[in-house]
Amino acid sequence: MQKFQAVQFLRIQLVGMLIVFVGVAQAKNKETHQVWSKVKQLEYPSLPEDVGTNASELAHGLRPDSAMGRHWPLTNIGFFEAFTPLVQPTISRVKSCSKDIVVAVVDTGIDYTHPELKQNIWVNKGEVGPWTPKDLKSTSCRDKRCNGIDDDHNGFVDDATGWDFVHNVPLPFDTHGHGTHIAGIIASAAANGAGVSGVCPNVSIMALKYYDNSVLGYNNLQNTVKAIEYAIRNGAQIINYSGGGSDPAPIEAMAVKKAGEKGILFVAASGNDGRNNDWMPYYPASYELDNIISVASLDQANKLLSSSNYGKKTVDMAAPGLGILSTLPSSRFGTMSGTSQATAFVTGAAALLASQQPSRFDYSKVRSWLLRSSGDISGGRTKKFMTAGTLQVGEALRLQMKEMYGISAPAVAKIQKK
Hints:
Layout: H1 2-10, E1 18-24, H2 30-38, H3 55-60, H4 72-76, E2 102-107, E3 162-164, H5 178-187, E4 204-209, H6 220-233, E5 238-241, H7 250-261, E6 265-269, E7 292-298, E8 317-320, E9 324-328, E10 332-337, H8 339-354, H9 363-372, H10 382-385, H11 393-405, H12 412-417
Parallel strand pairs: 2-4, 2-5, 3-4, 5-6, 6-7, 7-8
Antiparallel strand pairs: 1-10, 9-10
Helix pairs in contact: 5-8, 6-7, 8-9, 9-11
């Protein structure tokens, strides 16, 4: 019992919690106010003040996407070797991201009204659509999403976009910021001039809230397991998870294993303790399951962050994780650092590869393409720190196209010269 209690407390720590605001894209819209009114009992935590970038610079600066110049990680991971700045494919047969791919973000929730995210939020089709009550005067609700009925019989009432396992309600709204930031790295809208670009714009994001720093007395571990089980039952192909702890939990391991048995890829943060996970594992990233990708974090120079966990046997690959610009609640943008952010880049890349053949998703192939196409960290000695190397989206897509279609894709520069 003591072991599980220890795990519970460790789960409170989310990975990558440094937040620095860089501006506000626009005032809170009506939609956001409506959601906030529904979760008004939850208190938004205090955050650092704006550091100087004003709203007009952020909202109307660089094109085609206003903050693209700040989004160096896309360049580092080779995104622009496969896509133009307008996020159009440059490699033969490569397709843009597909809404048919569902990524479950198990985190602090998501601001699903954010302009950069709202078009990419997963919708439970069984819980939306016109609805007429037997007594028209009994309620003003005329849609399945608010009728108080489990229309799709999945055990959750009105779960139109996911579920809040902390409060046990169908409003997985982010009152912290971390989950919205992760969702933006994965799937924020591209080439709309409004903000940043995700690695896989248009993919469907399922919001599953397991953690809320403003609430005490709930079990993070149990919520994690419930969220994973929800993702399994409701059609997710990929799960992104940023939390963790030093003690293994059998119920969590079984949930992740079950996800693998159902064909789901589990992308997990390796942790921010600056330690070797080979010697001191970090769970769930360190479970010995073949559907897990454990991710370390890099700086702009492709060097392993001193805070990032690593491990020749237990950490698979690395991605950008320092000062990453992404979405925040209330139509804001800001930066965070840590293996959480690195994990989101790998998840986005996995979703992009999965989008090439949505109906034939195979997590083992996607995992293999990502690891075999990875590059070296700056300064070498990659194999000392991880199994594979740094995330390289362009190379992964080329490898995928070669093995799927026999196409040996040239570099983007050669394509552009034709």
